[in-house]
Design a protein that fits this description.
This protein is mainly alpha-helical. It has a single domain, classed as Na+/H+ antiporter like fold. Helices cover 81% and strands 0% of the residues. It has helices spanning 2-20, 22-26, 32-43, 59-80, 86-89, 91-98, 100-117, 121-130, 136-143, 146-151, 154-183, 186-225, 233-251, 256-270, 277-300, 304-310, 313-324, 327-333, 343-351, 357-370, 373-430. Helix 6 (91-98) packs parallel to helix 11. It is globular, with a radius of gyration of 23 Å. The chain starts with a helix and ends with a helix. It comes from Silicimonas algicola. One of its GO terms (cellular component) is plasma membrane. Residues 408-418 have a biased composition (Basic and acidic residues).
């Protein structure tokens, strides 16, 4: 109990300190998530030794539960900030990003893990699936805030948000297919994947999430019409929806990540953006509150010995995954995506596909089930590489994209004015 109290005190204290300098951090090259990770390393057993998850029980189980809760809160926040009409108007782009995009990223990640770490193919495919989804928690600081609104086109921000929310849940299918093939015969594995993973875990979770989100939204509307709910309880209501959806998903042994995103997405289809404007901002604050502790805990749970055993292959894996897993895929898909008008936007979206809380969740889950420490060793190293690389480049590349797009619009306007000024001259010459 004393250890638990120490952990709660340190997590709360660090979050307090980061909140006090949050405006400075928003203008600095060091985002709160990166600082939280570094503070976690400092507090962990390899440094000050103030937090050691192994003394509190199963480290993997603790990280899995913390990541699951953080994802649930984060996914509802993602759904709240996406306009109601955006999925309907852009369903083709979103489908291409989520289905072919995820398959290509999984194939590339699997090949990199297989070639660099030399693992058996299906183990490489399992780790490749874990690091495939983009993360909504780590992506939120990139696509929200004044800096993002000023420099990143709105359609691009919404595409990144929706993709990061949806592919976390669909990542369940990619993760469980290689896991089943590792633990069962091919015929039994495929049968279980089609009936249990696809139909129940994903299909039923999606339907139940949609129903839950619809019912929750309608009940809120009825309560508001009758004046039964106070305005300050609306934020509590959306946070409670996230927790309820996560709990329901786990109780029915389904894909709770997809269930909670489906619930949030349907909730936004019923409740207008104007009605949920305050909840959107409040939800972002709640997201930050949960995001800081998970990265502190990650810093305390890093497998330093396991990284050392991986040798030079570890850093090479991180670099190649960050450079090759996603940017080439977005360049290939760009001609078919209406919201990506230029190669620069495709590269920006391709680079900012962070690997974080979803990977922590899936790797903790799979390490426990498969009993293979290499799953956590490889995934945690890639997650740390992503937090550092995407955290340090977030603000500079966002500003660079905005500057480039403004210059491009200015040049286009100048060309239009030149053509307009030349038109009377050409007309006189013809006459």
């Amino acid at each position: 109990m004393n250890t638990f109290n120490i952990v709660v005190t340190l997590l709360g204290g660090v979050t307090l300190l980061l909140a006090l300098v949050s405006d400075w951090l928003s203008r600095s090259p060091f985002p709160p998530t990166l600082l939280a990770l570094l503070i976690g390393v400092l507090l962990g057993p390899e440094a000050l030794g103030l937090i050691d998850l192994e003394t509190m029980g199963d480290r993997g189980a603790i990280m899995e539960k913390a990541a699951r809760l953080t994802l649930g809160i984060g996914l509802v926040g993602v759904a709240l900030r996406i306009p109601r009409s955006f999925p309907r108007k852009n369903w083709r782009d979103l489908f291409l990003l989520i289905v072919p995009g995820m398959i290509l990223m999984w194939a590339i990640s699997t090949a990199l893990v297989y070639l660099i770490l030399g693992l058996p193919f299906w183990m490489a495919a399992l780790i490749g699936a874990i690091i495939t989804p983009t993360d909504p928690v780590a992506a939120s600081p990139i696509v929200t805030g004044k800096l993002a609104e000023k420099n990143i086109p709105e359609s691009l921000r919404h595409s990144m948000s929706f993709e990061s929310g949806a592919n976390d849940g669909l990542g369940y299918l990619f993760v469980f297919l290689p896991f089943l093939l590792l633990s069962r015969s091919p015929g039994e594995a495929l049968s279980h994947w089609l009936t249990k993973s696809l139909l129940w875990d994903v299909g039923v979770a999606t339907l139940l999430g949609l129903v839950l989100g619809y019912v929750a939204a309608r009940l809120l509307q009825i309560s508001e019409r009758r004046g039964a709910i106070k305005s300050e309880w609306r934020l509590v209501y959306t946070v409670a929806l996230a927790l309820f959806a996560v709990g329901i998903g786990r109780l029915i042994r389904s894909d709770e990540v997809l269930l909670v995103f489906a619930a949030g997405a349907m909730f936004t289809q019923v409740i207008s953006r104007e009605d949920r404007q305050n909840e959107e901002h409040g939800q972002e604050a709640v997201n930050r509150f949960f995001a800081i502790p998970i990265f502190i805990l990650l810093g305390t749970a890093l497998p330093w010995q396991g990284w050392q055993e991986m040798g030079w292959q570890g850093p090479i894996l991180v670099a190649t995954v960050l450079l090759l897993r996603r940017p080439p895929v977005l360049l290939v898909l760009r001609p078919f995506l209406r919201n990506l008008r230029t190669p620069s936007e495709a590269l920006f979206m391709g680079w900012f596909g962070p690997i974080a809380v979803a990977a922590i969740y899936y790797s903790s889950l799979m390490e426990h089930r498969a009993g293979e420490p290499i799953i956590w060793h490889a995934t945690s190293l890639v997650v740390c590489g992503s937090v550092i690389a995407h955290g340090l480049t977030g603000a500079p590349l966002t500003k660079a994209l905005g500057h480039w797009l403004r210059e491009r619009r200015s040049q286009s306007a100048d060309r239009s004015e030149s053509k307009g000024a030349a038109a009377p001259i050409l007309e006189n010459m013809r006459s």
